Amino acid sequence: MAASHQDVQMNNEEQDDSSTTDADSLIRSNDPLHPANHISDLCRRFYTLGWVTGTGGGVSIRHGNHIYLAPSGVQKEMMQPTDMFVMDFLTKQYVRRPQALKPSACTPLFLAAYMHRNAGCCIHTHSQWAVLVTLICEARLQNPAERNVFAIKEIEQIKGISRGGSGSDDIAEGGRKVGNLGYYDTLRIPIIVNAAHEEDLTEALEEALELYPETCAVLVQRHGLYVWGKDVAQAKTQAESLDHIFQLAVEMHKLGLKWV
Ligand SMILES: [Zn+2]
Question: Region entry Disordered: which residue ranges (predicted)?
Fold first, then answer.
């Protein structure tokens, strides 16, 4: 059962113990792959790709029963481990909450990927390629019958996408990942309509997850992309593969080439 936006909001108000030493121990580590350090690093990398410009987008990592979340309103290239919100996955209550910052409005959407896809990492980008693909679909310029799903086939990078987003990345003979789409599979990413407030997208995203059990991502019309993976590596490489495919799709469209 998904935590509603209201639940998350309520927990935001109920829980505030970020001043305790215990809470700060959750974000202090010399390990660069500790979620608090890793999210800060990923934010800087994604900023250089134009994915999280102007404080947009977001990154979250699940670490055991803790969900680490980059805050709202912080310049992504300046993100610090001390900026991180940490939520208990079971109670959906914040166990660390920086006083001066606001939790990300992406939080309920990230939780949906954790709960419904057993994800270990979730990334939200405002990539221009993702936005352009939704505009082409919205205007029915590729497949006039379908504006709510992006579909493409016979592009090599499709093989970088796992079924459901968090499928097995075991390698079969020939180097193929057994849980991934094949070259002749059609990649389908559902597109949901944007809302004035990010958290109001949660219900539509959950519906899309149910309707498209094989999808690793959801596009948001005129907005961007939510993509997940069973761990950071899978979420990040799928975000990269999709951005590569979206850019190709936009350029193909400009050349009058069909996606499917
Ligand atoms: Zn957004």
Answer: 1-29
Which tens digits make up the pLDDT trace of 19-52? 446 899 999 999 999 999 999 999 999 999 999 9
Q: Which amino acid is at 226?
A: Y
Residue 258, burial from CB neighbour count under 10 angstroms (0-12, 13-18, 19+): exposed
**Ligand 1 centroid distance, CA of 57 (Å):** 5
Cα of 129 vs centre of ligand 1, distance in Å, is: 14
Which domains can be identified in the chain, with CATH numbers?
5-254 (3.40.225.10)
Annotated binding-site residues for Zn(2+) read 124, 126, 223
Percent pLDDT > 90 in the chain is: 85
* pTM of the full structure: 0.90
Name the pairing type of β-strands 217-220 and 149-152: unpaired
Taking the centre of ligand 1 as the mean of its atom positions, its distance from the CA of residue 127, in whole angstroms, is 10
> What whole-number distance in Å separates Cα of residue 121 and Cα of residue 105?
16
Q: Residue 55 C-alpha to ligand 1 middle, in angstroms?
A: 9
Residue 219 pLDDT exceeds 50: yes
Active site residues: 156
Tens digit of each residue's pLDDT (9 = 90 or more) over 68-87: 999 999 999 999 999 999 99
